[in-house]
Amino acid sequence: MGWVESIQKAIDYIEEHLLEDLTIESISRQANASAFHFQRTFTILTDISIGEYIRRRRLTLAAQEISSTNGKVIDLAYKYGYDTPEAFSKAFRRQHGVSPSEARKYMGKLKFYERLMIQVILKGAKPMKYNILERDSFQLIGIKQEFSLVNEENLIGIPKLWEKVNSNGTGDRLAKLNNGQIDGLLGVCVDKRNVEKSETMDYWIGAEYAGKVPEEFSTLTIPASKWVVFEVHGPMPDSMQQAWKRIFSEWFPTSGHEHAGTPELEVYDNADASNPDYYSEIWIPIKKG
């Protein structure tokens, strides 16, 4: 089964169990992927998190039911996963702009989100510049922070960690220590679920380095891998986000390769990230599909 088909299978599973207690683990199993990689890929392809997609779809169905039945708000609140009518009404108004009672009276326009269908669009007009290479294992030094994967807290916390590193001088110190083949600061996600069965991941900001490690930094060994390395041109964060989207929507479905499941790298030049000519890279470990 291809990657796009696997994601669609997971979306179909969400829809079939939309009113049940869904977990990221049960959803990702449908795509035969780790929870971390599925969560990340889903967000890249759709621009929303899995939790947000589920919330939007439930509130869409709730609005349809309110508009066409006389069901009590308290019953609908419990049916669509809310502990209290107040919480349901607050979420309903945030999405639709009106309260459940106003929706029943046809006061205002409701916002409906359709079921997702993943499609591959082969554009071809804008080439993707990449290189495939093999490397032995190497050492990264830097800092790491553990993030919870519950409620997708990692998606909120990682940008804040970069802000801290860029403002307190840590990024500059790592850039000066960098003496490996990869020239730049590295952002590395390490999925711990399959190893520790935990609900967390580690995120590293570091640099490739061989030598005595300063006390302020820790080390991470990146395993030997076959890599596909994509060039990214343009200011952050938009250029990086668009590159990831094209990789998963255009390159992987047609390349004959799969993600190898080991840590991937984002490589950032220690320069002005808002510059229109800013250069960065995405390193993804791959295997034959």
From TrEMBL:
Keywords: DNA-binding, Transcription, Transcription regulation. Residues 8-106 form the HTH araC/xylS-type domain. Gene3D superfamilies: Homeodomain-like, Regulatory factor, effector binding domain. InterPro entries: AraC_E-bd, GyrI-like, Homeodomain-like_sf, HTH_AraC, HTH_AraC-typ_CS, MarA-like, Reg_factor_effector_dom_sf, Tscrpt_reg_AraC-type_HTH. Pfam families: GyrI-like, HTH_18. One of its GO terms (molecular function) is DNA-binding transcription factor activity. PANTHER family: RIGHT ORIGIN-BINDING PROTEIN. This is AraC family transcriptional regulator.
